[in-house]
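Practice problem: predict the structure.
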Amino acid sequence: MRIEEAAARTQARIDTGKQTITGVNKFKIDGDAKINLLKVDNVAGDTLPRLSDLGLTPASVLAIAPTYLGRSHHHGTLNGLRQSARR
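Answer:
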């Protein structure tokens, strides 16, 4: 099926109500209704351990990525995948 045919069939299902698109053809909000969103800064509060409590130290992506992406790692994960994909 071509993309044009698939798009036309999907649009027809939406227009007839056979396919639901929330907020478009069903469950619409009338007018300019204000929706109050729940705003919570931190759901867990102080109950979860911090990284330092787990013995972890945050590190930047720039410090970690070369071991996965570059040649500095003896395997170079991404380079190995690239080479195997070329075969």
